[in-house]
Amino acid sequence: MRPLVLASSSPYRRELLERLRLPFCWAAPSIDESRLPGEPAEQLVRRLALEKARALAEHYPNNLIIGSDQVAVLGERILGKPHDFERAKEQLLAASGASVSFLTGLALLDSATGRHQVDCIPFTVHFRDLDEPQIARYLQAEQPYDCAGSFKAEGLGVSLFRATEGSDATSLIGLPLIRLVDMLLNQGVQIP
């Protein structure tokens, strides 16, 4: 098996990839993650996932490189990482009683041949009706300011949900393992 590289600095994605018990290294790609004018959310995450993988190809010329990107969509609005308490509170107030779609772009690039696979895996979170004190308690407890949608599904954030729906719960955390296994199998990687 050719070495795997995760094109991400996310500790959440590294933890997920460790579940597959395959050796890998990781590196942070340096790309412009700006949305193109009029670019649909699904196209954005697909493009960024592949760009992240390609950004490392020169440094890892004979590897399988995994890129991933995620956005949260509420109505027509893309919710980015909040970075601070006030923006996180605004996002969770907007999500209260509503449904938020999480779109996770996934790419697997064979840097030796340039062959790649790209997909977008959706996952929906239906939020409970949330009030400001509840939101403030949650944000103070978990401080999810580096997470799209302002919560950590693998932690206390699950208490904010009424229900979830989707084919791969790991996509909500940022790396859809079920689809990634499909891609790796297509490349001849044996799992387990």
Question: What are its keywords?
Answer:
about 190 residues; alpha/beta; about 25% strand
Gist?
The protein has 192 residues and is α/β, with parallel strands linked by helices. It has helices spanning 11-18, 41-56, 85-95, 132-142, 170-173, 177-186, and strands at residues 4-7, 24-27, 64-74, 77-79, 99-110, 116-127, 161-166. Strands 1, 2, 3, 4, 5, 6 and 7 form a seven-stranded mixed beta sheet that branches.
Plain-language structure description:
This protein has 192 residues and is an alpha/beta fold. The chain has 6 helices and 7 strands. The protein has helices spanning 11-18, 41-56, 85-95, 132-142, 170-173, 177-186; strands at 4-7, 24-27, 64-74, 77-79, 99-110, 116-127, 161-166. Strands 1, 2, 3, 4, 5, 6 and 7 form a 7-stranded mixed beta sheet that branches. Helix 3 (85-95) packs across helix 4. The chain is elongated.
Topology at a glance:
Layout lengths: L3 E4 L3 H8 L5 E4 L13 H16 L7 E11 L2 E3 L5 H11 L3 E12 L5 E12 L4 H11 L18 E6 L3 H4 L3 H10 L6
Helix pairs in contact: 3-4
Instruction: Give the overall form.
Output: elongated
* Largest beta-sheet characterization: 7 strands, mixed
* Overall pLDDT level: 95
Q: What is the string of SSEs from the N terminus onward? A: EHEHEEHEEHEHH
Task: Return Rg in Å.
Answer: 17 Å
Number of strands: 7
The percentage helix is 25-40%
How many helices? The count is 6
Low-confidence stretches: none
Strand proportion, as a percent range, falls in 25-35%
Structural class: alpha/beta
Termini distance? 13 Å
